[in-house]
Amino acid sequence: MKITLRAWRESPGSSVDSEGHFEEYEADQLNPNMSFLEMIDTVNEQLAENGVEPIAFDHDCREGICGTCSMVINGVPHGPERGVATCQVYMRGFKDGDVITIEPFRSQAFPLIKDLVVDRSAFDRIQQAGGYVSVNTGSAPDANALPIPKDMAEEAFDAAACIGCGACVASCKNGSAMLFTSAKVSHLALLPQGQAERDRRVLAMVNTMDAEGFGACSNQYECEAVCPKEISVQHIARMNRDYAMASLRDSLA
Amino acid sequence: MILDSKTPAGPLRDKWTNYKRDMKLVNPANKRKYKIIVVGSGLAGSSAAATLGELGYQVDCFCFHDSPRRAHSIAAQGGINAAKNYQNDGDSVYRLFYDTIKGGDFRSREANVHRLAEVSVNIIDQCAAQGVPFAREYGGVLSNRSFGGAQVSRTFYARGQTGQQLLLGAYSALNRQINNGQVTMYTHSEMLDLVLVNGEARGIIVRNLRTGKITRHAGHAVLLCTGGYGNTWNLSTYARGSNATAAWRAHKRGAFFANPCYTQIHPTCIPVSGDYQSKLTLMSESLRNDGRVWVPKKKEDCQKDPRDIPEEDRDYYLERKYPSFGNLAPRDISSRSAKEACDEGRGIGPTGLGVYLDFSDAINRLGKDKVKERYGNLFDIYHEITNEDAYEVPMRIYPAIHYTMGGLWVDYELQSNLPGLFALGEANFSDHGANRLGASALMQGLADGYFVIPYTIGNYLAQTGAGPLSTDDPGFEEAEENVNQTINKLMNIRGKRTVHSFHKELGKLMWDYVGMARDKSGLEKVLELIPALREEFWENVNIPGDAASFNQSIEKAGRVADFLELGELVARDALIREESCGGHFRTEHQTDEGEALRDDEAFSHVSAWEWNDKGAPILHEETLVYEEVKMTQRSYK
Amino acid sequence: MNKIVKLLTSTLGRKYIMGITGVGLVAFIMIHMLGNLQIFLGKDVLNHYAVLLKSSAELLWAFRLGLVAMIVLHIVSAISLAIDNRKARPVDYNSKATVQASYASRTMVWSGLIVVSFVVYHILHFTAKVTDPSYHDFKTDLDGKMVPDVYAMVISGFSNIWVSAFYIIAVGLLCIHLSHGVSSMFQSLGLRTQKNQGFLAILAMGLSWVIFLGMSAVPMAIVLKILPDA
Ligand SMILES: Cc1cc2nc3c(=O)[nH]c(=O)nc-3n(C[C@H](O)[C@H](O)[C@H](O)COP(=O)(O)OP(=O)(O)OC[C@H]3O[C@@H](n4cnc5c(N)ncnc54)[C@H](O)[C@@H]3O)c2cc1C
Ligand code: HEM
Ligand code: HEM
Ligand code: SF4
Ligand code: F3S
Ligand code: FES
Question: Looking at this predicted complex, what is its ipTM?
Answer without folding.
Answer: 0.95
